[in-house]
Amino acid sequence: MTETVDVKNLKVVVFQLADKEYVIPVSQVQGIEKLIHITRVPKTPSYVKGVINLRGVVTPIIDLKNRFGLGESVLNESSRIIIITLEDMHVGVIVDSANDVLDIPMDAIEPQPEVVGGLEQDFIAGVAKLDSRLLILLHLNLVLNPIKSGV
Amino acid sequence: MDTNQYLEMFIEESKEHLQACNEHLLELEKNPSDIAIVNEVFRSAHTLKGMSATMGYEDIANLTHKMENVLDIIRNNGLQVTPELLDVVFIAVDQLEEMVLDIAAGGDGKLNVADTVQKLHLIETGEEVPVAATIVEAKVEAETSQDNWLSYDDYELTVIQQSFEQNYQTYEISVELREDCLLKAARVYMVFELLEKMGDVIKSSPPVEKLEDEEFDNLFYIALVTNEPKDDVQKKLMKVSEVTEVKVIPVTIEQLKNRQNNALDLVEEKLQKEVHNEAKANITKSQPTEAEKSTPSKGQTAGNKTIRVNIERLDILMNLFEELVIDRGRLQSISEDLSNSELDETVERMSRITGDLQNIILNMRMVPVETVFNRFPRMVRQLARDLNKKINLEVIGAETELDRTVIDEIGDPLVHLIRNSLDHGVESPEIRKANGKPEEGTVVLRAYHSGNHVFIEIEDDGAGINRQKVLKKAISKGIVSEEMATTLTDKQVAELILSSGFSTADVISDVSGRGVGLDVVKTTIESLGGTIDITSTEGKGSLFSIQLPLTLSIISVMLVELGEEIYAIPLSSIIETAIIRSSDILNAHNQKVIDFRGKVVPLVFLEDVFDVPKESNEDEFHSVVLVRKGDKLAGLVVDSFIGQQEIVLKSLGTYLTSVFAISGATILGNGKVALIVDCNALII
């Protein structure tokens, strides 16, 4: 019984960026952190905010809003850093808020509509409609493409 | 049997034994007649066989068994050690290694070894006619005259004589244990216990201590004085499990005396003028010495108590300790704010203890370069044969210790360099002969400590670097221009071979010469914070010298402030610091320079390089850190110096690779991250 549920559902972390809700599979999320001091790293793309000390591990932080070309994040009390693990890479992304963990039925996920446009379109793996909410599933491999050499 | 819990130990020990096999086989190749070395290899193979059979890895057991047979014939002087024979044994060792690695990787350790087994078998039987003959001969001899059995000193002879007078019998007993006997010491104990119930054991060969330490193969000899009949003794001994054969032979005092005299005569003939007493001493001693030769290695390891710790655990310990160091820093600043004397005292004590702890942990992570060097003798041997060259590899300073992180990275570059030396450096024997050099080329692999660095050098007495050839190639590859070529020093030319896309081998060989090798070596070594230097004399040979930091995890830095940000500059590249006036700054071709002790040194304004956000304020004085790369200097202009500190080096992670002029990061006492400046990138 439980197995069939596992196959059909995708457990995701939901976060807010501008006015949209995005999701990342829980399996790729290592943790959610409050904002701490970020050390700027020079000569990197503008969306790389710098690095933080995550319990002894130096972890790079990127501003997802900037990465999507939606302007700079305004950091406030509800801002969160989601630590994502992709293979052996750890990266933190700044989001406006992280509010929920959800089970999305696999069949509710549709490929993204062609019309969206913009930079962000390249990073979208699919869209899920859940009740009245529209959840955007991200293509983390593309979002977090390692940055080679500075300028 | 559930063998899982022993698996790790089995793998570790197998690796050690295989490494020992490798080393000793190489030694054997140099001294083919040294039976002591064969014994060493035999011992390793034997242990390996026992272990693998217990663990149920049949292929390993099977192969080691065959190997052991061949070795056994060699040490009984039945076979000559030839390179061809060693080749087969090496293949066997390679396959064993493969199987062990497979088991380590979670496999079942199965491999098709039939071919090798067949080859070993051929060696074993192919020469069987002469070999078997000698063995049989030896056996016959042993049975008739018992020459090889035991020899007695005067005291023992007296004991035997006295027992004869009291109507006791003396037997010489040979006991053979099953080859796969696992608890030999226990069997020995049982045999002795039985014998002691029946009479007195007056002598054994090997000596009892050796028997108890299992330092014998399957056969041992005992002299027993008893009044039990011969057959009883034999039957009782056969009751001991895993004993395959017992021979009991009664001896008479006349026989013994004859034997003694015969032996003495022989020795006398050989030594002619030696005094009787000394000769006797020689006879009794001759047997143990061989065994003794091989014991020191074992004794040493046993004397030095060690435990195996998984390297991962040490890494975790290190990480935890690093966090502790960070918290210590925080605690120190808190106690300063509170100025409570008791708290101050405690914190100070804690700092001291953590300081000691840091030394211990760092030392624990030090590994001798031996672990990397170990694999080279085999590699060189194989390559030399492939290339039809004669090469002698000398390894010096293998015990030099380096941080594990460096050790992990240094292997591949060294392989490249050694291959390069063998392929391009050392000439073929014919050419060497023609040039008046010994046919055998020498490659020296040397490691030593100097100051805060470790040097690893690879030196060959080969052809050296041909300036013209290198320049021609470099020009054709567009690495240097023709005009530039004439101005280069020999050293600069030598360093050209480290540039990418460079390969001078006319024939692209399997060994090296894909033109990707040496520049990779250079990059790897530089990424480890080291440098590589080439000295070469044409016709005489070349020397590749690698300088590496002792440890990669903790380095000394100078912390500097740039606006609100803190950066760390490694002390290893700092020459000195200075404060200069604005008026001292000169302009030369759009480049700000200073005159520093008679040298013109270009200035690098770190604020500009790192785009530090800051409102400009024109100071009259500037703080400058003078850094160097090779013999070039540069002055890094910073806002202020904070001070010198030992820091824990951290990488920026896989996401941010190669950020300009930043070589890593560290965590400061306040928990914030500071970036480490890569001075090499700032000096052009």
UniProtKB/TrEMBL annotation, chain A:
InterPro entries: CheW (IPR039315), CheW-like_dom_sf (IPR036061), CheW-lke_dom (IPR002545). Pfam families: CheW. Residues 9-149 form the CheW-like domain. PROSITE patterns: CHEW. One of its GO terms (biological process) is signal transduction. GO terms for cellular component: cytosol. SMART domains: CheW. This is Chemotaxis protein CheW.
Automatic annotation (TrEMBL), chain B:
One of its GO terms (biological process) is chemotaxis. It comes from the Bacteria. SMART domains: CheW (SM00260), H-kinase_dim (SM01231), HATPase_c (SM00387), HPT (SM00073). It catalyses: ATP + protein L-histidine = ADP + protein N-phospho-L-histidine. One of its GO terms (molecular function) is ATP binding. Keywords: ATP-binding, Chemotaxis, Kinase, Nucleotide-binding, Phosphoprotein, Transferase, Two-component regulatory system. GO terms for cellular component: cytoplasm. Residues 554-684 form the CheW-like domain. Residues 279-304 are annotated as: Disordered. Gene3D superfamilies: Histidine kinase CheA-like, homodimeric domain (1.10.287.560), Histidine kinase CheA-like, P2 response regulator-binding domain (3.30.70.1110), Histidine kinase-like ATPase, C-terminal domain (3.30.565.10), HPT domain (1.20.120.160), SH3 Domains (2.30.30.40). Residues 1-103 form the HPt domain. The modification Phosphohistidine is found at H46. PANTHER family: CHEMOTAXIS PROTEIN CHEA (PTHR43395:SF1), SENSOR HISTIDINE KINASE CHEA (PTHR43395). This is Chemotaxis protein CheA. It comes from Psychrobacillus vulpis.
